[in-house]
């Protein structure tokens, strides 16, 4: 579980995050949604320690990231897995070597153990057959699955995904969403996903934080999105053709 309390972040005299309070829960896919420029990325960066907020607390199961020492921070970083917008794989390394990379860097495992663990993770994302291929030889969706395998290699407690579906077609996005959701429950991780994708909101929004101009405008679950009365959330949802359709149909059924 990650709790943020009274989080403030500004750049020069411009407040970008304003008094955000939220709990990202274990075993759940926690989504941060909001318009472009609302502060999602800045929030994610504050969560992982790439930016330091002026005020507030970021508590990793009670451990405050803002005040902890360097050593503790380093140890905590090893409990975090990250998936970036681009899969960010090393082109010159094979799929297997890419997944082994964090193990090579941060574990005390023997070479044999590292191979075994990397193969296990590749198997989990259904890519064991592609282990000897290079990133340039596989599709964008497969690259994302390699990135997921790499992110879980060190068995993280906390998983951060920045726009995991960017650049993917809707069907492949669904596969990636389901995979992230499944591994989150399976390993009881606290997963935080930054997304614009309304399919993701509907599909895997176990817990949703909607940010509007740097403040928490609404929180709830995918099931509550349909019945929410928050006007700004509704405007945001209605900007998506998909949800416009689903919500209108839902309202018809309730009549
Ligand atoms: N390093 C920085 N210096 C100054 N302003 C910044 C910096 N990083 C972000 N901002 C500003 O903070 C605001 C929030 O940006 P952020 O990137 O978090 O938005 P976002 O919700 O992630 O948008 P998008 O969905 O387009 O990625 C924006 O107005 C942005 O210009």
UniProtKB/TrEMBL annotation:
<keyword id="KW-0813">Transport</keyword>
<dbReference type="Pfam" id="PF00005">
    <property type="entry name" value="ABC_tran"/>
</dbReference>
<dbReference type="GO" id="GO:0016887">
    <property type="term" value="F:ATP hydrolysis activity"/>
</dbReference>
<dbReference type="GO" id="GO:0005524">
    <property type="term" value="F:ATP binding"/>
</dbReference>
<feature type="domain" description="ABC transporter">
    <location>
        <begin position="2"/>
        <end position="238"/>
    </location>
</feature>
<dbReference type="InterPro" id="IPR027417">
    <property type="entry name" value="P-loop_NTPase"/>
</dbReference>
<protein>
    <submittedName>
        <fullName>ABC transporter ATP-binding protein</fullName>
    </submittedName>
</protein>
<dbReference type="InterPro" id="IPR017871">
    <property type="entry name" value="ABC_transporter-like_CS"/>
</dbReference>
<keyword id="KW-0067">ATP-binding</keyword>
<dbReference type="InterPro" id="IPR003439">
    <property type="entry name" value="ABC_transporter-like_ATP-bd"/>
</dbReference>
<dbReference type="InterPro" id="IPR003593">
    <property type="entry name" value="AAA+_ATPase"/>
</dbReference>
<keyword id="KW-0547">Nucleotide-binding</keyword>
């Amino acid at each position: 579980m990650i709790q943020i309390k009274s989080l403030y972040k500004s750049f020069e005299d411009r407040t970008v995050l304003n008094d955000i309070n939220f709990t990202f829960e274990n075993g759940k896919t926690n989504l941060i949604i909001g318009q472009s420029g609302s502060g999602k990325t800045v929030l994610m960066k504050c969560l992982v320690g790439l930016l330091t907020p002026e005020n507030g607390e970021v508590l990793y199961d009670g451990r405050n990231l803002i005040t902890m020492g360097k050593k503790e921070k380093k140890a905590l970083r090893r409990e975090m897995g990250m998936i970036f917008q681009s899969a960010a794989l090393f082109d010159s390394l094979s799929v297997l070597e890419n997944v082994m990379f964090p193990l090579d860097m941060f574990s005390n495992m023997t070479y044999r153990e590292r191979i075994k663990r990397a193969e296990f993770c590749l198997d989990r994302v259904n890519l064991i057959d592609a282990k000897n291929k290079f990133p340039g030889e596989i599709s964008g969706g497969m690259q994302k699955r390699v990135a997921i395998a790499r992110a879980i290699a060190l068995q993280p407690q906390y998983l951060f995904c920045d726009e995991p579906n960017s650049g993917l077609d809707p069907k492949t996005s669904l596969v990636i969403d389901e995979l992230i959701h499944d591994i989150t429950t399976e390993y009881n991780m606290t997963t935080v996903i930054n997304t614009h994708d309304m399919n993701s909101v509907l599909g895997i929004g176990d817990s949703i934080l909607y940010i509007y101009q740097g403040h928490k405008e609404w929180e709830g679950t995918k099931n509550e999105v349909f019945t929410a009365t928050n006007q700004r959330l509704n405007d945001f949802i209605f900007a998506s053709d998909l949800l416009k359709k689903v919500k209108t149909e839902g309202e018809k059924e309730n009549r």
